[in-house]
Amino acid sequence: MNKLSLYSRVVCLSPHYIPYCRLKNSLASTFSRRTLRGVQTSQHSIPAAYWRGGTSRAVIFQRRDLPVDESEWPFIFLRVLGSPDRYHQQIDGLGAGISSLSKVCIVSPSTHLSADIDYTFAAVGITSSDVDVSGNCGNILSAIGPYAYNHKLVPPASKSSVTVRIRNTNTSKIIHSTFPVTNDRIEAATGGDCSIAGVSGTGAEISLSFQDPAGSKTGTLLPSGNAIDKLDGIEATCMDAANPCIFAEAADLGVDGTELPDEISDNLPLLQRLEKIRRLGGRAMGMCHDTQNAPRCVPKIAIVSKPATHKVINGTYLEQGNVDIVARVMSDRQPHRTIPLTVALCMAVAATVRASIVEALVGPKKVKKGVLTIGHPSGTIEVGVEKDEAGNVLNANVKRTARSLMEGVVYY
């Protein structure tokens, strides 16, 4: 078994790895100790913040405030978010019943020479007790730089903007987050005229530049060695940039590709097939030897199609001429209401790879020069990709907004 396959089900909460099986066993024993003995005790509290980043929300902890024993962390995360919840609502916590709002981030100063901050992402199960750290979250990443600046984990800005270098420990990749600061340079600015589809209003622009995004989990851009693989009888592209992703054409799946999330949720045969293809793709990418043991959250899978005029969630129409490609993405087995940022980044890279599913669907002339404009259920997102002369991906770039929603302590 190669090292990458060995760690495809490994929890990377720090430089110290916790095998997934040990995490689950520890979690079960923790629940047993705290919930089955009938002992009435006071709730515990821990410093935390609650942020929106892009189209996601998450509870942010600093590593120094969490228990030294990382096997105690999942219990805290599950209690704080309100999981597992058989009613799919997370009423007893800060989650909201959908994958984009059931997230935790752990932040600390970095010892890496190319980074200022270490950031670990955890996707918290809604109906299950899974805490999955197999991949990165790009949307909530947009909150990490401003959070670190506000908490003085990085030096104060010497001008009107600052760049925070973030190491995502899930993928060991570096992301540069550049954003404006307030006039007194005490905090990250929140006011501005940047808008993103899926979030009402405007905010300060946060520029995210993913450095060398290829091979985030598998070590290579095309983990299967092919631009096209055959998965469950259809052609698909398996690619790893920012996060491992699988791209399948809508027509091959018997759908238009412009369906809204609720329509996809109601199509059980489609959901089952997408999950089957996702697991087969995970095996083809070397992320698991058995499809039953594929990581829960990666690879992501996206349905992609040619530009077409269609209705989006807010009831307006997205015109065919305003997008280069249309995508519908599954995130933690739920149809995403916008698009996971890492999938958008991977898709933009895929559009530059000859013979990939994405490249074949994107027309020769882009809506905007230098960026790929992707249509998703709430609107559009623009992603830029920079390559060197040899065709290696140097960086992938996108704009987001973020703001703090709560600061204090959270109970578990």
UniProtKB/TrEMBL annotation:
<dbReference type="GO" id="GO:0016853">
    <property type="term" value="F:isomerase activity"/>
</dbReference>
<protein>
    <recommendedName>
        <fullName>3-methylitaconate isomerase</fullName>
    </recommendedName>
</protein>
<dbReference type="InterPro" id="IPR007400">
    <property type="entry name" value="PrpF-like"/>
</dbReference>
<comment type="similarity">
    <text>Belongs to the PrpF family.</text>
</comment>
<dbReference type="Pfam" id="PF04303">
    <property type="entry name" value="PrpF"/>
</dbReference>
<keyword id="KW-0413">Isomerase</keyword>
